[in-house]
TrEMBL record:
Ca(2+) 1 binds at residues 68, 71, 73, 75, 77, 89. This is Peroxidase. It comes from Chenopodium quinoa. The gene is LOC110727539. It catalyses: 2 a phenolic donor + H2O2 = 2 a phenolic radical donor + 2 H2O. Its cofactor is heme b; Ca(2+).
Amino acid sequence: MPLHSSIVFRVLFLALSCLSAQTEAQLKVGFYSESCESAERIVNEEVTKGFMKDKGVAPGLVRMHFHDCFVRGCDGSILIDSTSTNTAEKDSFVNNPSLRGFEIIDNAKTRLETECKGVVSCADILAFAARDSVVITRGPVYDVPAGRRDGRVSLASEVLRDIPAPSMNVDQLTQSFANRNLTQEEMVTLSGAHTIGQSHCTSIINRLYNFNGTNGADPTLDSKYAGQLQQQCPQGSKDSSLVVPMNPGSPLVTDVGYYQDILANRSLFTSDQTLLTNSNTASEVNQNAMSQSLWMRKFAAAMVKMGQIDVLIGMSGEIRTNCRVIN
Ligand code: HEM
Ligand SMILES: *[C@@H]1O[C@H](CO)[C@@H](O)[C@H](O)[C@H]1NC(C)=O
Ligand SMILES: *[C@@H]1O[C@H](CO)[C@@H](O)[C@H](O)[C@H]1NC(C)=O
Ligand SMILES: *[C@@H]1O[C@H](CO)[C@@H](O)[C@H](O)[C@H]1NC(C)=O
């Protein structure tokens, strides 16, 4: 090849690789359409089957995808089991015992390994399963760009650092999401996931008794509701399995009930109620509470963006054979 054309080729190649480095979305909708045509259908069948048996798998899988993406990116690291030499993310107290739905991912993976061995990543299975969980609870329908690969590291110690705490105020939450390149508005939008599912009493007990050195409950919590929560979560109870619904009006429906709860001073966490203390976030809470269609559109877009955090693509990472174990 003449020198001249090889230089042209290289310059072109460099320009193209710069371009692709700039575009955020290296993932692709329909990524498995040729390599494993039934991938999304199989995940959907397993989510549906699991949901019939236990409605809790839907909120569980939405939260699991969030916890996967915020720690080391959406690389399926949340799915890895601890070993004798490593305590994995799922065994941080933040996730154990509250995180649920792992068996749905296992069931889908088992079928996919039979159908298309070594093709579909655990990280993608989780992203599809979270979407299917949103849809099965009547939330927005959206396409999931795929092509994530699985990580090989999962450390419990990173969970507390990277997953926002329910005691956080709006500035801390904004920072936590900014660390993942998500805006404050996306933070408010994604928090709307707290319209489904449940919380363990242990996650709200600090707001119910001796709040901040006072004798009673958090004064920003509606006092009648605080009384009900105190009955469901008795002080000093040793029962760590006690739970309360997130949005008691419709705990299984992905709607704007979460924002209506906040406006009624009936949200469970400081991290929810604090959204009224900042004029921008408060205005978004008000808008979302009033417009289901607006919030659904924003939520779908924000889930897609969250699903792209620090993904492994191309030849990085691996396609795990068993989602609980690195290859
Ligand atoms: C904004 C910061 C957030 C904080 C501080 C937070 C905190 C929490 C806490 C403490 C629980 C209760 C866990 C338990 O005790 O069982 C919970 C549950 C849940 N979270 Fe969040 N979360 C946040 C954002 C998100 C996001 C972005 C999503 C998803 C997009 C999400 C989805 C869920 C779901 C669906 C549940 C219910 C889980 C179940 O029923 O098993 N959360 N969250
Ligand atoms: C956030 O964006 C910056 C600049 O574009 C990039 O360097 C960084 O890797 C991104 N972080 C995440 C978690 O996506
Ligand atoms: C806790 O109490 C202190 C002093 O009484 C007060 O300055 C602070 O704002 C309170 N914090 C919350 C979260 O209410
Ligand atoms: C919510 O609490 C605030 C004070 O924290 C109060 O001004 C407001 O009226 C309460 N809203 C409702 C609906 O109870």
